[in-house]
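Onboarding guide, step 5: your first structure request.
Type a short instruction followed by the sequence, for example:

Predict the 3D structure of this protein.
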Amino acid sequence: MTNRFKLNWCIFIGLATGLYAGLYLISPLAEAGVIYVTFVALPIFFLAGAKREEYPNFAISNITGVLWGMGYIFLINWMIAQGVNDVLSTALVCVVITIICCAFHMIVTPNTVFNKLPAMFGGISAAFSTWGEHMIPLMITLVFGTTLALIMTEATKLLTPEGHWKFLKKS
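The system replies with structure tokens like these:
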């Protein structure tokens, strides 16, 4: 990858991110204040190799992670309501639910669309970031973050190996 390629790709990434942020902030999703969750999902997809064919797995695993996160939060709150210290409640729930979550997705559903643990943990962290508020906007924003990463990755196909834009190339 040449420096020209990298620079042109960076320009595309910046423009795509700016367009995304602008559109997001004029959408109803802006009210939830969770645009930052975009940048939880985006690097997870990139770091995993950003393979187009795995996009649905990442998007669905993000959503599943938010649901797992809701389970963590429900159980932590329940234990606290039973009089268990908040630190102990959080630690115990994290141990037990993380074991169950990982085992379920690594052993029971490894060859399904629910098989991307990093994306699931992104969803769990997003749920924790709002302590159970704005779950639907969180799910949508995580999927949008994964989508933005896919768009950025696919944009590399618009560049020649030397880093010139194919659509600007003279015939």
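Each response can be followed by summary notes, for example: The radius of gyration is 19 Å.
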